[in-house]
Amino acid sequence: MCTVTGAASGIGRALAFALAEHGAQLALSDVDAEGLGATAEQARQLGAETVHADVVDVAQRAEVQDWADATAERFGRVNLVINNAGVALTASVDEMEWADFEWIMGVNFWGVAHGTKSFLPHLRRADPAHGAHVVNVSSSFGLFGMPLRSAYSATKYAVRGFSESLRNELRREGSGIGVTTAYPGGIKTAIVRNSRAARGTDRTEVAAVHDTLAKTSPEIAARAILTGVRRGRTRVCVGLDAKVMDLGTRLLGSAFEPVVHASIERARSKVVRSSARAL
Ligand SMILES: NC(=O)c1ccc[n+]([C@@H]2O[C@H](COP(=O)([O-])OP(=O)(O)OC[C@H]3O[C@@H](n4cnc5c(N)ncnc54)[C@H](O)[C@@H]3O)[C@@H](O)[C@H]2O)c1
Predict the structure, then answer these.
(1) What distance in Å separates the CA atoms of residue 264 and residue 6, rounded to the nearest whole number?
(2) Ligand 1 proximity of 30 Cβ (cutoff 6 Å)
(3) What is the pTM of this model?
């Protein structure tokens, strides 16, 4: 059986659908009850054996712990835990509000830590024939510190470090539990539209730049992540942009930074030109 957080939208919803098509038993959660209900309904139609959908705020440790225990009890086993829920924040370090910084840490980092720690004892009890695996969703911004995304990048680097340490702990103890960290590049979802930003930010422009840069559909992202799990990959870079980011940072180090700046600037100019034409 498989659990997915942030299943009401985007990558989480696409993961739920892809698992449903394989007849999986699903425990889905999100803070968005309406979106979650729609995902659950469609997952049933797509062939999921069982679907339980619960409103859970991943930033709240007790809520995640209760959900994990209830899920293990309902299904009798837990095999795949996908900590996917996440939010975005566009703000310079100077302008960022502490409350927004804490909010994003709560969802993107603590959410992953809560999900991992709460489900780990249940994964340890999984039947090895059905596997036991954790997927933590980081980002290509967990490979490169993006300007105006310091808090987001910090959460995604934290997810990377936390997940790599966990994997090495489990490997050292000879546990059969796998850990995959996913590094999506730009994925065509509502994440930026749902995000927070510093006062005075042109949110429409930020969303339009994301839409210009995001080349991968959530369905392709979900397929890449689940293929990575099946093949026992420790890291999955999703989309060509994430693969370029991974290689660029490793081969060029900080010399890669101007390349990223130039590509953001190109996308921004394209957005400005097309909004000028629309006037
Ligand atoms: N879209 C991208 O370009 C992109 C790139 C890299 C990484 N990611 C990561 O992929 C994951 C999924 O993002 P997405 O693009 O599908 O975004 P999305 O906005 O479409 O979906 C995110 C989901 O998380 C839910 N969520 C938000 N706060 C929550 C909370 N406190 N508790 C439970 N659920 C909560 C939202 O309601 C939403 O349904 C995130 O971790 C994100 O950081 C996305």
Answers:
(1) 27
(2) yes
(3) 0.97
